[in-house]
Structure formats: structure tokens, C-alpha cells
Amino acid sequence: MLVLESFEYFAPSSVRQALEVAAKYRGRARFLAGGQSLLPMMKLGLASPSALIDLNRVKGLGYIKDGGGWIRIGAMTRHAEIASSKLLAERVPLMVEAAKQIGDPQVRNLGTIGGSLAHADPAGDWGSVLIALKGLVQVTARRGSKLLEIDKFFVNSFTPRLKAGELVTEVRIPKPPKRSGGAYVKLERRAGDFAIAAVAVQLTLDNSDRVRSVGIGLTSLGPTNLRALKAEKILVGQVPTDEVVEEAAKAAAAEAKPVTDPLRGSQDYKRAMAAVLTRRAIKLAVTRARGGE
Amino acid sequence: MSARVINLIVNGRKVSCAVEPRKLLVNFIRQDLGLTGTHWGCDTGNCGACTVLLNGKSVKSCNVLAVQADGGEIITIEGLSKNGELHPIQQAFWNNHGLQCGFCTPGFIMQAYWLLKQNPNPTKEEVREMLAGNICRCTGYQNIIKAVLDAAEKMR
Q: Which of B22, B42, B108, B109 should be substituted to probe chain A, the one whose Cβ sees the most A Cβ atoms within 10 Å?
């Protein structure tokens, strides 16, 4: 039986109160969001905070709303809520497709988008999806809030760009224009496992069927979720023919930085899968941008 | 680190208990309330044997702190049968041989209970997807899926 080490427990009702407690503990406290990663880590001794600041009673952190040019998602919004959001299904279906592939139903009922991002697991799904969508992460401290581009958010494995006392409070997704499509393609050993590898693609086509803009995010293919920048550059301005897509897929595999792990395969295998998944995700995204499924 | 008193409703009954914050909900249910129908399997959120409903949502009770349930409502496997009669989902598991050793069964039944509350008419594919967080080492799953579809039909 895995027993948690003792900790002080706080259940504040506002972000301000939560940040005050965090300030008092100077980095020895952890925020508890959905708890689907943090509690297992505490059981395994990988995290042993002096205090837990439970965000589940904080009001106003769970929402999905239309904010003009952006969709705004509160940090405590559960994966299951994203999976069943009509607004997202209509405006950013990539979010819905990815949410449905996270963990398993029970995990999705509790796990949150903000918690997942702050956990900064390179096998996390949201980082890649936000990279593809060019999303922003709102970080709040006692002195105020700032918006970070997702590309600046991940420092290293399990290391987000968050100082002690800073909290992820919102995610912002720019609304994709017309003729946009996205796809999240994930390879798992079994249902609910972490990805062996996964690729998120979001792209927009112009009226002559050329790629106007594209974002490609890689999961479990490096120390953090990565942007496949070279693959994106290959696609932009081109009609996504089989040859162009293949070239982009190869580029994504080349810029991936997978490592061999005994459970989920060798570096070479993962690199090969990076090419396969990137190709599939781009093709699916293109089909969807053209209005098909 | 001191214990704090939590008040909640478990299977329709009011409960008030002092718990340490580090106590997991599964241990609270089994040890403090003596409701040992909720099984404690992998301890790491993988197997689903400890699934219960917390405020109407299915959760793995090994991945929730007991203090988080303060003010809330829990339904465990013991809360399903009424007046000594098995719940239709329990009966369907029996009728369809949806279990062998039975260790995973309470978790599967609670997850199925949640699923059918949300979606009384699921397809086979939806049942499979919604049971993906529960692991069974005996049955090969086919009879479990049959049982859930059978229960769905009887409950409609």
C-alpha cells in the first residue's frame, strides 16, 4: 500500500487566497488541480510537497467561453468538459479530438487542462495541441497576470516556466479562420496509456489550396512537447501534395528528439512513428480543412 | 497535518468523520466506513477497481483525497442494490457471466452505472470506450460489454 507523506492541506475559495498560501510556502507547496498526475507522483515519492493547495473549491476557474478572436478556457476545466464542449466542437474541433484521447474516462472526469500543462510531462497531450493551435497560457501571480506563448512555456521535462507562487489560470486559443482543419493522432501500447508518440496538426488553406499557416506539435518525442518547425516551413505556401506531406513528415521525424525507453520502444522506432503519425495528421487536417472528414 | 472533520453523503447516508489530509478516498471508504466493496487494486490510477461516483462523476478513488469529498456525495457499489434486490447492472453481470474472480467487478459496475446515467442507449463502441479505464484479467471483456448492453436495455 502506497501511503502519502504528510502535508498541510488548504482549500481556498479564490485565486488570491491560493496565491497567498503559495507565497507563504515559497516553493514547498504544490497546487492540486485534478490530481491525476500529482497524487500518483506523491505516492511514488516523486513529489513530496509540504502543503497542497487544492484548487477544486476556487470559484471561476472552470469555463470555456467565446472571447472575440479567442476561445478562453479556464485552467480548472476538466478534459471531459472539453471533450463535450459544443463551442469547441464547432470552432476548434482539434481540442475535442485530443481531449477524448487523454487518459481514460475517470481520469478525464477530474484531470484539468491547466494542471496538465503545469505538469509539463513530455507525454502530455495539451502542450502539443496548443503548439499546433499557437495558443497562449495565462500565468497569474500576486502582482498580476501575464500571457506566455506556448513555445515559451516548457523549459524541460516536468519543468514549466512557472516560478514559485505562479499559477496557470487560463488557456487562450486563437479562433481558426475558415478552411482550417486539425488532427491529433496518437499511438499507444494500450487504451489509456501514455503516448508512444503523438502528433497534433492545425492548418489553414488559402483559396488556391495552399497551406496558409500550420502548427505541428510533437508528444513523447523529446524532453518537452516540441514544435516541428522545419516541417511547418516545408508546408507553408505549398499545395499539400503527397510529396510535400512526405517531406514534411520526414522533417518532423528528423527534428524530433525521442529517447529509448524500455516500455514504449527505441529511439529509432519512435522516430519512424513520428514520420508516420505526422503524415497521417497532416493528411487528416488537410481533408478537414477542405470540408471533408 | 492534523485531522480535519469532513461531512458528506455516502450512499444516501450522512457521514461525519475526522481524517488526515493525506488519506486517500479509497482508504477512507474501506477503512473508516467499512465499505469494502470498493476494491483497491493498482494504487496508481490505472486499473479502475476503486471507481466510485463523486458528485455524480465516476472517479478513481485512489486518485482523490478524502478531504476533497467534504460537502459532497459519494455512491459506492453498496449503494446500488435496493431492498436486497440487485441493481439491473449487477443482475446483468450475473446473467451474462460478466465476471470470474470478481475483483474488478465493483469498479466496472460503477463505471457502467455512470455511463448509463449519461447515455442510456450506448453503442457497443461507446461502451468499450467508456470502460477503457477499467482492467479485467479474467473475462476478456466480451461478457462485460454484453452485460452493460443488456443492463442498458433493461433499464430503458
A: B22
ipTM of this complex = 0.96
CB–CB of B1 and A7 under 8 A?
A: yes
Cross-chain Cβ contact A2/B44 below 8 Å:
yes
Per CB-CB distance under 8 Å, the chain A contacts of B24 are: 4, 39
| Distance from the A291 Cα atom to the nearest Cα atom in chain B, whole angstroms | 26
CB contacts, 8 Å: B134 with chain A: 104
Flag if A107 and B60 touch (Cβ within 8 Å).
yes
* CATH 3.40.630.10 is right for the domain spanning B88-155: no
The alpha carbon of residue A70 is apart from the nearest alpha carbon of chain B, in Å, by 29
The CATH number of whichever domain residue A116 belongs to comes to 3.30.465.10
A133-165 confidence digits (pLDDT tens): 999 999 999 999 999 999 999 999 999 999 999
State the cell numbers at A178.
Answer: 475558415
Q: Containing H/E element for B152? A: helix B142-155
Sequential DSSP letters for A7-66: -EEE--SSHHHHHHHHHHHTTSEEEESS-TTHHHHHHTTS---SEEEEGGG-TT---EEE
Lookup result for grid cell 500500500: A1
Chain B closest CA to A116's CA: distance in Å?
15
Span A115-129, pLDDT tens digits:
999 999 999 999 999
Q: Report the gap between the CA of A200 and the closest CA in chain B (Å).
A: 21
* Contact state of B133 with A110 under an 8 Å Cβ cutoff: no
Residue A198's pLDDT band (cuts 50, 70, 90): very high
Q: What is the pLDDT of residues A65-110, one digit of tens each?
A: 999 999 999 999 999 999 999 999 999 999 999 999 999 999 999 9
CATH among 3.40.50.11810, 3.10.20.30, 1.10.150.130, 3.60.110.10 for B4-78: 3.10.20.30
| Contact between B44 and A56 using a beta-carbon 8 Å cutoff | no
Pairing state between β A211-219 and B51-54? unpaired
Percent of chain A with pLDDT over 70: 99
Q: How many CA atoms lie within 13 A of B115 on its CB side?
A: 30
